[in-house]
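[job 4471] stage=fold_predict status=RUNNING
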Amino acid sequence: MLTARSTTALLAAAAIVAGCATTTTEPTAAATASTVEATASPEPAPTETESTEPIAAEGEPADEVVVEPLTVAVTATPDPMTGVNVEVTTTGFTWAPEHASGEPVEGEGHAHLYVDGEKVGRLYTPWFHVGGLAPGDHEVRVTLNGNDHSDLDVDGEIVAATTSVAVPEAGAMHGDPVAHEAAAPMTVTATVTPDAKAGANLQVTTTGFVWAPAKASSMHADGEGHAHVYVDGEKVGRLYGEWMHLSLEPGDHEVRVTLNGNDHGDYLVGGEPVEAVTTVTVGDPDMGGH
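[job 4471] inference complete, writing structure tokens
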């Protein structure tokens, strides 16, 4: 039988056990809460707009745009057949035959060619053939000109180049060289438009053909060469690139362009010449024309 004293002792022991249980479970609960909190708060990930590239130090200079100086150089060499081949090289300049006689645009235009002080014509491409020169020494001068034909200058000095060439006695004329059947499809088209100042501008487009002015009057190589230009049935010269200025009198004119090999033989496709024919009506020249 339990007495009052033993009952009191039992109650006291139960209280002690309960207190010990509470003391041992509190650290565990705290640790669990801490673990959950750490798991719920990871480091924030960078957003798409954040850059991972290193930032340049303040005050570093930006990359500079290099602008080439405006220069011109010219070489003139006797053609193995006849005349002289002129090559023009430039820096800081863009050939823009499609804008000839138009509004000036900085850094673009065409060139003017002079032989022995007399103007021969405009250059629309870096290569040009000068025919009809007598044997002997000749001075060749080239100026760079804007679309409006004004001389381009640097610090007040006209951008020009001059050279000399000795033309030998006439060599073997190519006459009527053998025609060449093109090994691959080849076409040519010609467009002639009146120039706003004087004459007309010829544009030639080709397929299956490579312009090779440096090889003019040399051995034939299939698929390359130059062109011959005829106005009203008369040959006016060779064409070494896609553009040419034609000095034409006012009125109607027929222009014919043939594709030719390095040796000047006509190209054929299916036995027919690779050529283009068109017409142009030229008005009265602008008195300030070039």
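[job 4471] summary: The chain is about 15% helix and 40% strand.
[job 4471] exit 0
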